[in-house]
Write a structure and sequence with these properties.
The protein is of the alpha+beta class and 171 residues long. It contains six helices and five strands. The chain has two domains: 11-62, no CATH class; 75-170, no CATH class. The protein has a five-stranded antiparallel beta sheet, with helices on one face.
């Protein structure tokens, strides 16, 4: 009976390649042995590019927000604001005079500690988040072209979704 050995993470490479040569070292060895390599071979510098990308990711997490994303919110940020309200760490209130039941099918506006959020009420059921504006003016907006699961409401667990729906009905 054949059994497949499963080795987690980087350990797999050590099992597969006991010499643990980097791609660049292999390419240089092949080149020195007379095997020509294309001048623009992207695999040649893969390890170095990977290290540079990891370093850039670490520095961007520590540093400030880049100019391209400064005016945008992520779905995860909006989801976290909704979670804060669900767990009672933030105050949620409705904006406007209509209650959840009066809207029945349409956009329901809420405010969570200064975050203006528009949630779609689809026949008295919580459907999706249409838009969110943070207190500092950053915006997240639903786009029908987004991948499935990128809506802040879709990122909530089943229990969180049900709890938020109940809380919206009580506002």
């Amino acid at each position: 009976m054949d059994t497949t050995r499963r080795v987690p993470g980087r350990a797999y490479q050590k099992v597969r390649d006991p010499e643990r040569l980097l791609i660049e070292e292999r390419a240089e060895a092949l080149s020195a042995a007379g095997y020509p390599l294309p001048a623009d071979d992207p695999a040649m510098y893969a390890e170095r590019r990977l290290k540079e990308a990891r370093a850039a990711a670490r520095s961007s997490q520590v540093g400030s927000i880049s100019e391209n994303t400064a005016a945008e919110l992520s779905a995860r940020e909006v989801c976290q604001v909704l979670r804060e309200a669900i767990f009672g760490r933030s105050v949620m209130g409705r904006v406007g005079h209509e209650s959840w039941d009066e809207i029945y099918a349409g956009h329901f506006q809420i405010n969570v500690d200064g975050w203006e959020i528009s949630i779609y009420n689809d026949c008295d059921q919580l459907d999706y988040c249409e838009q969110c504006v943070s207190p500092d003016g950053r915006l997240w907006s639903f786009d029908s072209g987004d991948r499935f699961g990128t809506d802040p409401v879709a990122l909530l667990s089943t229990w969180e979704h049900q709890t938020l729906e109940r809380m919206l009905k009580e506002l």
